[in-house]
Amino acid sequence: MKEVLFTKLFVGQSLDQIVRSANEIGIPGIDLLIRNGHQVEPGDPSGIARAVKALEAGGLGVPMATTDAIDPNASDVVAVMQACADAGIELVRLGYFPYEVERGYAACFEQARRHLDGLERLAAQLGIRFAVQLHGDTLHGSGAQTLMLLQGHDPNTLTAYPDPGNQTVQDGREDWRLTFDVLRPWLACVGMKNGGWFAGRHDSSGQRRWHSDWTALSEGMVPWDHIVAHLVATGYDGFLSFHSHYEVPFEQVIDQTRSDVNFIRACIASARERCR
Questions:
Q1: Which fold has domain 2-275?
Q2: Element (H or E) spanning 16, and its range?
Q3: 174: burial class by Cβ within 10 Å (0-12, 13-18, 19+)?
Q4: I need a labelling partner for 111 at 20 to 30 A (CA). Which of 22, 36, 53, 258 fits?
């Protein structure tokens, strides 16, 4: 399994800070976020090569990137994906295909499938792969929903990106074993985060309100020890992208991310020992 650090946590920081932090944590690769307000923006595709060069000079690989791209006909999407391919990035996470109540599922699904058909052709032309991440408020919140979008598409070009943390705190909850089972032919990346639901106060109607929050990987509702054991047992060799969605001071985020990485490594080592 290949560890990468998602750079969303570095908003407002420099590329040099990413290098220092990733090396401090001991994680070898980067999942580069290409989004307005971050180190690389989609309006400047040439910045992708510069960022990759700077990160590689700091001893980090950049095998993966994250974008908000969903329309293969958009000129900026083609330019960004071409730049990713030219920079040696092998897997690019796509944006989200939303479920819009007013339009209805069928119309949303049909449009998403058309876009994915075009994205599949683009990926094949560029020699890279695209990934659909499981995320709330979309047509791909759960494994079963994502399967509907990916069926018939080549796993060498369009892939799946399960995110059990998102599924726990958003609207894609299902048995994690089902998620990994139905998406197995397309698996390319797993989002590494955890969270849970916490009881709040009763409102004026007498209904108790609940809220979700992110937690350390070892402390939330996602059973990462079991999931990691499954990934080891099934020979998964794709990416593990550490997200670190912690709303605490930056140094604490880095400390917690280091703990998260060490926890997952311990789970991997334990699972491999049991498989001997």
A1: TIM Barrel (3.20.20)
A2: helix 15-25
A3: middle
A4: 36
Contact yes or no for 146/160 (Cβ under 8 A): yes
Beta bridge partners of 187: 160
Q: Is the dihedral of CA 218, 134, 265, 4 positive or negative?
A: negative
Q: What is the CA radius of gyration of the chain?
A: 19
The domain spans of the chain are 2-275
Looking only at the bridges linking them, the beta strands covering 208-215 and 194-202 are antiparallel
Phi, psi values for residue 271, rounded to 5°: -65, -40
What is the per-residue DSSP string for 173-198? Answer: ---HHHHHHHTGGGB-EEEE-EEEEE
pLDDT per residue, tens digit, the chain (276 aa), is 999 999 999 999 999 999 999 999 999 999 999 999 999 999 999 999 999 999 999 999 999 999 999 999 988 999 999 999 999 999 999 999 999 999 999 999 999 999 999 999 999 999 999 999 999 999 999 999 999 999 999 999 999 999 999 999 998 899 999 999 999 999 999 999 999 999 999 999 999 999 999 999 999 999 999 999 999 999 999 999 999 988 889 999 999 999 999 999 999 999 988 877
- Which is it for strands 2-6 and 239-242: parallel, antiparallel or unpaired? parallel
The residue among 29, 196, 170, 183 whose CA lies nearest residue 96 is 170
> SS3 string of 237-263?
CCEEEECCCCCCCHHHHHHHHHHHHHH
Read off the tokens for 5: 């650090």
Return the SS3 of 28.
Answer: coil
